[in-house]
Design brief:
The chain is an alpha/beta fold. Helix 2 runs antiparallel to helix 4, helix 2 packs across helix 6 and helix 4 packs parallel to helix 5. Strand 4 and strand 5 form a beta hairpin. It folds into two domains: about 270 residues, 3-Layer(aba) Sandwich (Aldehyde Dehydrogenase, Chain A, domain 1), CATH 3.40.605; about 190 residues, Aldehyde Dehydrogenase, Chain A, domain 2, CATH 3.40.309.10. It is built from 15 helices and 23 strands. It binds nicotinamide-adenine-dinucleotide. Nicotinamide-adenine-dinucleotide (NAD) binds next to helix 7 and helix 8.
Length: about 475
């Protein structure tokens, strides 16, 4: 069985404790690799390596830094199949998804930040006849980047790439339940010529190594993606230390279909938005609001299309819905399905585990599930389930649907479907959401600010927002 290692100072090293955690393949329920259970000793080594590498990396000319990052992106792409298979085995996601979305995007994250780095300008203000102010944007130093299990390499690199581009050294921690592609990334960085210590990857549990990173005084910025509760815990520790914090947290996103929308497009996208990656994307539209006039037709078609989604072995190219991440998460999703029934929901399809044959007979599969007749205010419609469970709700007016959409504690992403431009703009302005997609979903321009409001987080990633986060602005006032 493969024993993964930490990546510190450009080398692969065993954890100081020699302790390992079991890494389970969700599609089979079997342990298939061992993950370092890192602790504060490993962190000290990583901090030392990062501190040593920092002055030179920060002083490396932009073109050279950009060239190394672009090379990392190219090498990820060259090893697309290896990465995609590793991601699919680690997460239970369909391999086609890993091959077409997750891994290409991870490669693109590096190329994108390599590319925009040279256009990152700082402010300058003149006080006529008195002085010139120039704002320097200097690296923060060592950045801590902590990422979740649902889009492992995609989200890990979404943080690491801008942090490195801005001239920082990084201590990254992937989720302990999906460590494999982060481990492979270390090998790519070696090949790409990233200097030792610039990127260090520590594996292990959130409560040990994760919180040690957050609490370490030599790490002034923490970029975190994960659950809202964990985000609050991180803020509790980091805020009194005055660290920079970027928190990308949970969501419970509305998908709103007006009667004048392009019906087929809205329907197909609603299916994709509800069930991609088994509903385990923070952007998934799990609360689907449909204007009353088209409700019955939409419900019938949505249920029929849901029933056509093939649940199967994630490694088969025909599979549309793979395994959910863990036994614990499987049970959590099923408990929400029971809750929905108790809350008076009508189960329209799914609602049960799927037993596969052969290799995947002990895997954690759940049939895509659809409910209706639930109040927008019930727990099923207010809490993040993060699984293949969608609810359908009719609405009469724009005001009504906006009230429902905004009734949750979260505010990450919304999708609005209408051909009426005025309405699209009105609704977009009123939605409490960091991202609004009109007549689309998950259409990403990496230059745009990405993140949520309310309990979905603090700060924005993407484009120059990310480069701003990973730099310290210092104003230099030059008197004439
Ligand atoms: P999680 O909060 O349990 O863990 C995320 C990461 O934080 C893991 O690496 C974990 O080990 C680490 N961690 C856990 N406790 C920690 C602590 N006390 N200190 C430091 N690190 C700690 O989240 P998860 O279950 O891995 O991911 C699912 C959640 O992530 C969902 O709520 C989902 O909505 C959210 N998410 C948000 C976005 C976004 O961009 N807003 C994207 C993807 C996922």
């Amino acid at each position: 069985m493969e024993k993964l290692k930490n990546f510190i100072g450009g080398k692969f090293v065993a954890p100081h404790s020699r302790e390992y955690l079991e890494n389970i393949e969700p599609a089979t329920g079997k342990v298939y690799s061992l993950v370092p259970n890192s602790d504060a000793h490993d962190l000290e080594r990583a901090v030392e390596a990062a501190n040593k590498a920092l002055p030179q990396w920060a002083a490396t000319p932009l073109e050279q830094r950009a060239a190394i990052l672009a090379r990392i992106g190219d090498l990820i792409e060259q090893h697309l199949d290896t990465f995609a298979e590793a991601e699919s085995i680690d997460t239970g996601k369909p391999i086609t998804l890993a091959r077409t979305i997750d891994i290409p995007r991870a490669a693109r994250n590096f190329r994108f930040f390599a590319h925009i780095l040279e256009g990152f300008a700082s402010e300058s203000y003149e006080m006529p006849e008195t002085a010139l102010n120039v704002t320097l944007r200097q690296p923060v130093g060592i950045a801590g980047c902590i990422s979740p299990w649902n889009l492992p390499l995609y989200l890990f690199t979404w943080k690491i790439a801008p942090a490195l581009a801005a001239g920082n050294c990084v201590i990254g921690k992937p989720s302990e339940i999906t460590p494999m592609t982060a481990f492979l990334l270390g090998k790519i960085c070696q090949k790409a010529g990233l200097p030792p210590g610039v990127l260090n990857i520590l594996h292990g549990e959130g409560k040990t190594i994760g919180s040690a990173i957050v609490a370490h005084p030599a790490i002034p910025a923490i970029s975190f993606t994960g659950g809202t509760r964990t985000g609050a815990e991180i803020a509790r520790i980091a805020a009194p230390m005055f660290k920079k914090l970027s928190l990308e947290l949970g969501g419970k996103n509305p998908f709103i279909v007006f009667a004048d929308a392009d019906y087929e497009q809205a329907l197909q996208t609603a299916i994709r938005s509800a069930f991609s990656n088994q509903g385990q994307i923070c952007l998934c539209g799990s609360r689907i609001f449909i204007e009353r006039r088209i409700y019955n037709r939409f419900r019938k078609d949505f249920v029929e299309a849901t029933q056509k989604l093939t649940v199967g072995d994630p490694l088969k190219p025909t599979t549309k819905v793979g395994a959910v991440i863990s036994k614990q998460h499987f049970e959590k999703i099923l408990s929400y399905i029971e809750l929905a029934k108790i809350e008076g929901g009508r189960l329209l399809t799914g609602g049960h585990p799927v037993k596969l044959k052969g290799r995947c007979k002990n895997g954690w599969f759940i049939a895509p599930t659809v409910f209706d007749r639930l109040s927008p205010l019930c727990r099923t419609n207010q809490e993040e389930i993060f699984g293949p469970v969608a609810t359908l709700m009719p609405f009469e007016t724009e005001e009504e649907v906006l009230e429902y959409a905004n009734s949750v504690r979260y505010g990450l992403a919304a999708s609005v479907w209408t051909r009426d431009l005025q309405r699209a703009l009105r609704v977009s302005r009123t939605l409490q959401s960091g991202i609004v997609w009109v007549n689309c979903w998950m259409l990403r321009d990496l230059r745009t600010p990405f993140g949520g409001m309310k309990d979905s987080g603090v700060g924005r990633e993407g484009g120059y927002e990310a480069l701003r986060f990973f730099t310290e602005p210092k104003n230099v006032c030059l008197k004439y």
